[in-house]
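Re: How this chain folds, sequence and tokenised backbone to follow
How to read it: Take the token row as a discrete description of the fold.
Start of record: The labelled sequence and token lines come straight after this line.
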Amino acid sequence: MVAPSASSLDRFLAAPQPAVRGFLFYGSDALQIAARADALSRVLLKRLGPDAELARLHDTDLAADPDRVIVELTTHSLFGGTRIVWLTSLPVKAQAILADAIARPFDGAFLIAQAPDMKKSHKLAQSFEAAAHLAAIGCYGEDPDSVVAAIRHQAAEAGYEIDGEAAALVAARCDFSALLARSETAKLITYAGDDRRITAAQVEECLNDQQTADLSDIVDAALDGDGRKAILAFERYMAVESNVSPVFVVLGSSLLRLHALRVAVDAGASPMQAVKELRPPVYYKQQDALAAQIRKWTIPALAARLGDLNGALRDTRLKPALAEDIAARFLLTVAKEARAASRR
């Protein structure tokens, strides 16, 4: 039975058990599913070496030929290495075929399957959870407390102690994305060097110009209605990164946070009061900007953009060669909505 707990999930995905060959990412958070599947594919590719072969199958591939799952899992790599079969979506007509394919252990390949909106009670999810050669990983969004705990655990494993305030600051700057927080904590540990106690001041010094700041620049510009600034920041980010998923992760969490704040304002709170009462607390330098964003956005507009975001993320999986263009167009759409709201 392989179903890692939330507290052990990061360690499990960073060093998956050799006997586990198939991984199902399911649940309600499509962004988290995509980000974790992508992170696992990188771990497996690094472990398997240069002869590894990655085969991505999208929704259209599986809908047209559901049996292709079995073909890909049983076909030997042309380069003599191990194949990684990545199902970026799982249409209903392919689920029975997949259930047959995973019923017995398979040694010649690894399987990564994404199943947004699949419930834990689904027969396929239960099959992945029950078998020793498979793993079922639920994705329902990040728990802020667990992100902070994961940061402190990662620092402790490296021989460092990080202040509670410093860990909370890292988590807040990463918009409570565990994947981003793990990357930023690794940078922070390298920055700390021989100083074994990490403080909030060091977090400020180290992460001020790092990736999280770049992601915040992209998302904040879009939510403020400045499309040109958002695209320039996005282009700077993509010049050193090849993955658009973190942009969608941060934008998605920011839209959800704005939605919750707008609900509070519509119920009678002032924008700044809603920001200051938010838990976990908002980094103090971001409070004024966030309050201004609340004034621009309405609940229907935020709900519409959240729905569109899932569609844009799906499109990046179906058309990976166009992922950067799809993300840029979505950022411009968000900025256009914010500008229109400002005029209203």
